[in-house]
Amino acid sequence: MLRANQAAKRLPCWICEQPINYNAGPDNDDSFSVDHFKPRSTHRHLAEEPSNLRSAHLRCNKSRGDRDVKPGLGFVAQTW
Predict the structure, then answer these.
(1) Residue 24 burial (CB count, 10 A)
(2) Is this structure's pTM higher than 0.85?
């Protein structure tokens, strides 16, 4: 149910910010997967918390693994 609810939002990948192919097969690297913002390995109590779920490409989710999110530098300024 949690996976279906997240997929229904049709959001882009939260990691690379590119569109996700929601029609791709489950083994396709461009397919939808549910990522846990705070990894299940270190935050088991958040495993089924909807606010901890993010939409991601399967490949992005795999490459991130179970590492915590590193803070970014912010948004890119307008190109001059």
Answers:
(1) 14
(2) no
